[in-house]
Amino acid sequence: MRDSTGDVLRDVCVIGGSRYFGKRLILRLRDEGVNVTVINRGSAPAPPGVTHLVADRDDEAALEAALGDRHFDVVIDQVCYTPRQAAIAKRVFRDRTERYVMTSTMEVYDPATFDGAPPAHRPVGEGAVDPGTWPFDLELPWGEESFRERLGDARHYAEGKRQAEAVFSQDPAFAFVSVRSAHVLGGGAEEFTGRLEHYVDRVRTGRPVVVHPTDRPSTFINDREIADFLFWAAGADFTGPVNANSHGELSATELSELVAAQLGAERPTFTRTGSRAGDDVSPFSFDRYYAMDNSRATELGFAFSTTAEWLPGAIAETGVQE
User: Fold this and answer.
1) Chain segment 205-241, per-residue pLDDT in tens
2) Do residues 175 and 73 lie in contact, with contact meaning Cβ atoms separated by under 8 Å?
3) In this structure, are residues 217 and 250 in contact, taking their beta carbons and an 8 Å threshold?
């Protein structure tokens, strides 16, 4: 594997990556001849041919000890959720790498999770949330369940990611990239969230799909494509946030209808419910337009697929173990 300058990338560290598209990324790196080191808490073994270091990333001393004097061309961080985790990683890897790629999320743009966010009427670009100026607070009790409950899961996740990006971006220790991934679909039984399976099950059994009164579209990406995108970002030379999503938006109703067509099932029925916070609607049903603009990545050279290309396969493999 060569980076954008033509130099060979020999050593890559992946933090996390023990499941789903993280596994795909690790195998892709390994099969391209990269020396891959995986760091996790021992929750899953590393694939053959991959170095496995066991350490809790929240324990700075243990992480330092596990790494020893290792140095990496690139670090890919799959499991950074809070600014405190980012601050530890920034100190630990400051002299161990020149490039750091963090897997972030489109949830950083969710207007329901931060005050003053304007409603989106067009696909949102990276500039809507600038990690270079976003405030962060390392003293908040990010790891405490009571704090998570007080914020709510969605706000805790989105704000944790926003502030983690900010820690890495401000006073940077290395070239930093945050990959803001769209909702990931595909992967069969590896897709542990069950969100696509929710639609397949509802449509197959004829039960109604619960959606908002006005169901707005969002953006998606395939599990293989996000792994390919992270692989590409590791070898590139750009910095800053970048959106990663396939071309083609879908609403929950449109997704349901495509599932029905793929299964050869009757057209789905829908139950429309209120748009209040906490209403029990299906995954990916949004009462606001919620789509990303992928033009920055496209201009940088990544060729995205369309959702129509991979969604039939993702539906067909739902629940199937590879």
Assistant:
1) 999 999 999 889 999 999 999 999 999 999 999 999 9
2) no
3) yes
